[in-house]
TrEMBL record:
Keyword Thylakoid: no
Region ranges (Disordered): 124-208
Main subcellular location: nucleus
GO biological processes: regulation of DNA-templated transcription
Compartments reported by the entry: Nucleus
Biased composition (Pro residues): 127-162
Name of the protein described by the UniProt record: Mediator of RNA polymerase II transcription subunit 31
The species this protein was found in: Panicum virgatum (Blackwell switchgrass)
Length: 208
């Protein structure tokens, strides 16, 4: 015990590790490991070898979440690794990945995602074509023809009445009360017959 305490450097903490390349090597190693998590078969390998039962390894997985920050995510080539890295923070997922059936299920779902991802994404990112404009009416050769209204019918004037002197006197009782002898004259005419006795009497009165 005394020899151990008297040994040089005994009880003195070793200085912290200093990176001579400004962390370039650590950056490359962690980037490679994180992107390996995009393979469900590799996660199944870690689960079967009981890496997920080590608390230090669980802490390391939590530490690697810094790759989700914008300044680091631009170096990620396989983005599925960040999805599985988030799932590995859950103990149920870590335990489930130890079973081959779950590994095959995760691999199959990943395959279908890759198969349909492009078509599904194009439906949302491609702009939809604008609606087709309505065809413009063809220009007319001349002024537009307006249909004319129908002509107004010309009123027909009724025939002028005959002079009162030439019309036969009709008794108040109607035409049926007239004597048939008054219409005896030229065949085919309706002129009444002149009473000669009345005509001669009127001339005598004028002469006297």
């Amino acid at each position: 015990m005394a020899d151990v305490e008297s040994a040089p450097g005994a009880g003195v903490k070793s200085p912290p590790y200093k990176e001579t390349d400004n962390g370039v090597l650590r950056f490359q190693l962690e980037l490679e490991f994180v992107q390996c998590l995009a393979n469900p078969t590799y996660i199944h390998y870690l689960a079967q070898n009981r890496y997920f039962e080590d608390e230090a390894f669980i802490g390391y997985l939590k530490y690697l979440k810094y790759w989700q920050r914008p300044e680091y995510i631009k170096y990620i080539i396989y983005p599925h690794c960040l999805f599985f890295l988030e799932l590995l923070q859950n103990a149920n997922f870590r335990n489930a990945m130890a079973h081959p059936a779950n590994k095959e299920l995760a691999h199959r779902q990943q395959y279908f995602f890759w198969k349909n991802y492009r078509n599904n994404r194009l439906k949302h990112i491609l702009p939809r074509p604008p609606p087709e404009p309505a065809p413009a009416p063809a220009p007319s050769q001349g002024p537009a023809t307006v249909p004319l209204p129908p002509p107004v019918p010309t009123p027909v004037a009724p025939p002028a009445p005959a002079p009162a002197s030439s019309m036969p006197s009709v008794p108040a009782g109607g035409a049926s009360a007239m004597s048939p002898m008054q219409f005896v004259g030229t065949p085919g005419t309706n002129m009444p017959k002149t009473d000669m006795r009345n005509a001669m009497g009127n001339r005598k009165r004028k002469m006297g």
